[in-house]
Amino acid sequence: MSALGLGCMGMSQSYGVPDDAESIATIHRALDLGLDFFDTAEVYGPFLNEELVGRALQGRRERAIIATKFGFRIEDGRIMGTDSRPAHIREAVEASLRRLQTDYIDLLYQHRVDPNVPMEDVAGAVAGLVREGKVRYFGLSEAGEKNIRRAHATHPVSALQSEYSLWERNLEPEIIPLLRELGIGLVPFSPLGRGFLTGAVQRAEEYPEGDYRRSDPRFQGANYDANMHAASLVRKIAEQKGLQAGQIALAWLLHKGEDVVPIPGTKRRSYLEQNIAAVSVKLEPDEMAQLDRALSPEVVSGPRYNERMMAMVDR
User: N or C: less crowded end of the chain, CB within 10 Å?
Assistant: First the structure.
């Protein structure tokens, strides 16, 4: 796949007002520029984002690698908890195939670990879908070390999707070494810190109702001030190189290894083009070290999720 993917969630929810025409144009532009990896999920919308991606890729399906996710119980447009029972996985996949207007999913993730369903049952259910040709590869999202091992022992896990960026480094002590031991790729979501690492952000209360960042602890109060200060080095290095701060943040991730494929999200062609240009940005070892220190875990202020959302992370 391409060195970068495109996170499509924000085209349908969480960040600003949807613009389907521009979003579809952005997906088409991505393909024209050689970006072929598109990330969606049934819960984005819910359901709207898969439908959007499906429309955008009509007539272009063979050029694209589509990743989607299962694992939530959705009722009346609301998430009512996790559900990774094998029968539900099959129902979710059949529905995703219809919305995406395709007969196979390239990469199928369990969106969050379900504490009520053994990981062996989850991996076994996906293995059955692989044998049937409805799924090509199996992935996990925000899974912890034990469940990664259990899943991989049942059916090979090709990728782990988790939050990882300059300002969220929780994977470094244990998860990344495990992925490399097992030969599993890493797909970092929110690689730009939900826009924070670009510098183009506001305080939580300045975002409109419905925007995810209103409830993000790192955008609130004293956390916001501390994090703006910590991220100032990203902007400084960008200015020295004549680049955008977001390009530096993406280049930092890309320098972490060829097994790391970030999926910055955008619904605008202009930002897509900026992000793709990060692939050619070169960071010197001393610049990488400076960035590592400036945004080390003890420097970043506030948890990455609120308490309810953190409870769904398998670590």
Answer: C
Q: How confident is the model at residue 157 (pLDDT cuts 50, 70, 90)?
A: very high
Tokens 């004293």 locate to 222
φ and ψ at residue 184, rounded to 5 degrees = -105, 135
Residue of 189, 158, 175, 188 whose CA lies nearest to 44 = 189
Parse the chain into domains and list their residue ranges. 6-310
Instruction: Please tell me the CATH superfamily of domain 6-310, with its number.
Output: NADP-dependent oxidoreductase domain (3.20.20.100)
Q: Which two tokens stand for residue 242?
A: 């004549």
- How many CB atoms sit inside 10 A of residue 313's CB? 17
- Residue 44 falls in the annotated catalytic set: yes
Specify the pTM. 0.96
Supply the pLDDT for residue 315: 85
Angstrom distance (rounded) from CA 41 to CA 95: 11
Of 44, 137, 207, 224, the active-site residue reads: 44
